[in-house]
Write a structure and sequence with these properties.
55% strand; 5-stranded antiparallel beta sheet; 161 residues; 4-stranded antiparallel beta sheet; 1 helix; mainly beta
Length: 161
């Protein structure tokens, strides 16, 4: 009986470790959110994210995470990004469409917090080293209200052949 109990416990622990290891997406280099000040997101208060690239045999995709409240005033948000790293300085803007023509939020979640995941740069070739990406709002309002969090996800994409 004792032998069966030991085998059972060993099996349960072994499978748990195996499945928990399988659930980790090893392609994700960075998945991080930064809180926005309750008073609003000022246009000159960009959110900075740092990450390190060690594998230069793959392309990399970038995605912006955004969390807003239901009291956000616009149907979209324009964001600027600045990516700096080894022999790289890139700056561009992109739009995240937040609602349809009827005003229905397109993100996931409830009216108190709506989440978005917007790809904005795909297939970048990066050299080994440390990178910094800054995201800033680029709307008409100097201080944009009802934005809760801004995030960045960096994903190791297809292999370079």
């Amino acid at each position: 009986m004792n032998r069966y109990l030991s085998f059972y416990l060993f099996s349960v622990v072994g499978f748990s470790l195996l499945f928990s290891r399988c659930s980790v997406d090893e392609r994700v280099v960075l998945n991080q959110f930064e809180k926005v000040d309750v008073g609003g997101w000022h246009w000159n208060q960009g959110k900075k994210f740092s990450f390190t690239i060690t594998d230069t045999t793959h392309y990399y995709d970038f995605s912006c995470g955004l969390r807003i409240t239901g009291s956000y005033s616009y149907s979209n948000i324009w964001l600027m990004y600045k990516l700096e790293g080894p022999r790289l300085a890139q700056k561009n803007q992109f739009e995240v469409v937040l609602s349809d023509n009827t005003g229905k939020w397109l993100g996931s979640g409830q009216s108190n917090l709506i989440s978005y995941d917007q790809p904005f740069a795909k297939g970048l070739t990066l050299k080994a080293g440390t990178y910094t990406l800054e995201l800033a709002q680029n709307m008409r309002d100097e201080r944009l209200k009802a934005v809760s969090d801004v995030g960045l996800k960096v994903i190791k994409a297809a292999k370079i052949y």
